[in-house]
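Fold this complex.
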Amino acid sequence: MLINKRRMQLTHLERIHAIKWLANYKSLASMLIIFVIASMTSHYFFTWENMVNIVRQASMIGIIALGVHFVVLLGMFDLSVGSVLVISGTVIMASQNVFGTDIFLSMILGVVTGCIIGFLNGFIIAYGRVPSFITTIAAMFIFRSLALWYGSGGALNGNHIRYTELGHGSTWGIPNLVFPLIVVAVSAHIILTKTLLGRYIYALGQNPMAASLSGAPTRWIVITAFAISGTAAGMGAVFETSRLNSISTSTSGIFYELDVMSAIVIGGSNLKGGKGSILGTVCGVLMLTMISNYMNLQNVSPYLQGILKGILVLVILYRKSRKG
Amino acid sequence: MLLQLNNLTKSYFGVTVLDHVNFDLKQGEVHAILGQNGAGKSTLVKLISGVEEPDNGEIYLDGNLVRIPSTLEAQRLGISTIYQETALVPDMTIAENIFLGREPKLFGLFTHYSKMKREAKKILKQLGYSFHPTTPVRDLSISEQQTVAIAKAISRQCRIMIMDEPTASLTEQECDRLFRMIETFKSEGVGIIYITHRLKEVQGICDRVTILRDGQHVITREAKGFNDKEIITYIVGKELSHYFPPVPIEVGEELMRVVGLGKRNQFTDIDFTLHEGEILGFAGLADSGGSELANALFGRVRTDEGSIYWRNEKVEFRSPREAIHHRFGLVDRDRAKAGMFSDMPVSRNLTISGLRRLNKWQFINEQKEQSKALDAVLQLDIKMIDPEQEIKFLSGGNQQKVMFGRWLVADSDLYILNEPTCGIDIGAKSELYVVIHELVQEGKGMIVISSDLSELIGLCTRILVMHEGRIVDQILHEFATEERILSAASGLQS
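Structure:
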């Protein structure tokens, strides 16, 4: 193998590899460019406090995006993550208040709720052959409505004071929420690059018929991907509730699914499936967060920030369509 | 001179695929381009049809220097291309596909549907077909789709028609019909560039022949008096002594027994046995049920009746996955749609079905994977720069070898090959035949479904002929002739 590789290292091959390498790390490069420009034009941007701030802001969308990334690799959508977040958050708050469960048990219940909903989504998509777009929109309505009904449209507050230490506190100067985020990102990367499931996900995303004919357990893969997405949204609920020790049934998680999709697209994933890396998605999330943070620092009205996000997504999709 | 190409050169990533090639085309002639996969035929077509631009060299149309930067420009210049894999929109009707982008308008605003249907019907009739123009293309067979693609080209009033292996998936009758069409175009002064792997067609319909090898122009001469042996020598660069390896006669124990298998509207009463070390061929015209049977054996579709015994054990597969667990392997006729992961490296394309044995607790053993992939590459002599190269950069024949290699890695015992050599060159074909022969000697079983009769006769221990979903004849190798297969396949009593 090694001899073979050596022999093949000809000059033009090195060029191919260089191009491939750049393509793989394109999102990282763009993120660094934004980072450098922002640091040079704003004094406050490149300070420890602001860096911590950005990472804290990015963690919420980030954890959900890591889950949805699996679904996007299949060429599908998960638009239910915002509603999964709010229903999981409701479960966390309600189980604490009503049943008086331990806060850790509540957190686990919340994550499990997300996982079950994701599983159901996947089950309906895989066995019912309903397009993911439709299935997850239905789930979005159903679970948002359920949360609104339970909370009468208002907020649910927790009574466990130490809970907010998780969301607000820091360890060694780094926000606590960053640690689970890193663990999830690394595991997601390992699953996608080193395991059977990961290989099958890419295969299914690229060519579903060929994947099925090569023996990939296609239904199981779809269900697992959606369960992972739901679980990640459940973890997002832990992040959200632990910051404020409350969940707002009417405003929490609104538009998260769209922010997440934008971040994944900006991170270089292909919406048709089969292409994209965890590193790209992480960079996409950080890029979006940095841009809105930078605009806040430059006193741009927060109401206008949607315009920039929209333009960014458009530019990226436009460039992709030109290439394809 | 209608079209003249001077010193065309094209390279990708520093690899020269076309090296100072000259070519010309007269009005009303059929000019064949022959060559192995990777000889540069497809690249030449791409340059003429505006998919790519040459690095160097000139293209003259009617003596005027032209540039063809896009397919749109090619169409404007009257150049139409009919590809192997047709570029039709499956969900649109035949008429809509034919007039896509050039729909007849009513008041210059609305699509004039009735006119479009009428025109489409007229063109199809001219071609000798009687499809309803409002049938969705999705419902047509591959050969019928090809006809629609030809109809599309005709409706554009083209002057140069490029046909990239138009007969690859057609039956004999359909081929005849196509040849008659070609005669008509010729008499109308259309120049036709005809790419094929079937040498028989060269004498039949072509006026001149150009042979390419390794991106270089080898020879251009009149087709008349250019015999097959000479042509092969020019294509390969050396004489081919063996085209087919010896047919296996000694067979081992029974591998598979199929009893009364049936699926409504596709096939009925299928009975056969397959032994270790046997190559069993299925012949038949298009839609005779061979492909459907292959899919049913592989668990891709469920059957209505009958049973399959695998090593004397009754099996019923609900999915290809289960069939693969029983060591079945299927090479589908359409490798682009049902085989390749085109953006994945060659190595991953090879190992995807064998991952079950290449992992430990769900983690892929990459070292083992690499070495398995490399074994397959060496055994099949797949030509590429690096196993990590994406499969889409390989030539058709090498891609097909990868499709084969997938089942080598998965260690299959039964190979179901549906048109295994569809659209690949003679060199790659005979290499695949050798691989099939080697596998059979190891005691594997082979089921070959093919519309290439010489292939079945040269390869198979036994040939079963299907007609309208039934097995109508069983022919042992020593009695197999094209006449006997054809008469059985067309429903004549033998």
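Residues 20 and 207 of chain B are 23 Å apart (CA to CA).
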